[in-house]
Amino acid sequence: MKKSEMIEKLYGNYSEQLVGRLDSLSPKLNQVIQEIAYDQFWARPGLDLKSKSMITVTSLVALGKHEQLKIHMRGFINCGGTFEELEDIFVHLIVYCGFPAVMNAFSVLKELKDEKNETLKN
Question: Does one domain contain both 59 and 116?
Fold first, then answer.
């Protein structure tokens, strides 16, 4: 399946892996996610991609959706966000989402940082 321009813009080098993951789950699911979530909602004017990413990351922390959180944290970083900003967002969420949800978010952030450090070593 053709990759959405928005997925490419949001995830950069990670977009191939993401589309492959979606396709391995279900080509129909892949199509729906790309056409509706990315080509319609993510591509809407108004908020910039970094803001949309921040909102999405925050929502996923609250919902406890770790696999999707990691994906969207990559998007946030690719849109100019930083690991430090993610840490600040997560600390802010302690009041609203609770310590367990934020601890899980920090765990996912650690995985992402470890992956980046491993990539830099190679």
Answer: yes
60 in Cβ contact with 72 (< 8 Å) = yes
**CB–CB of 78/49 below 8 Å?**
no
Distance CA 17, CA 9 (A): 14
Q: Give the burial string for 25-61 (b: 16+ CB within 10 Å, else e).
A: eeeeebeebbeeebeeebeeeeeebbebbbebbbebb
* Burial of residue 10, with CB atoms counted within 10 A of its CB: 0-12 exposed, 13-18 middle, 19 or more buried: buried
Residue ranges making up the domain that contains 91: 47-122
Are residue 86 and residue 112 in the same domain, yes or no? yes
Binned at pLDDT 50, 70 and 90, residue 122 comes out as low
pTM (two decimals): 0.89
Mention every residue, 6+ apart, whose C-beta is less than 8 A from residue 8.
15
> Confidence band (pLDDT; 50, 70, 90) for 1?
low
Overall domain count for the chain: 2
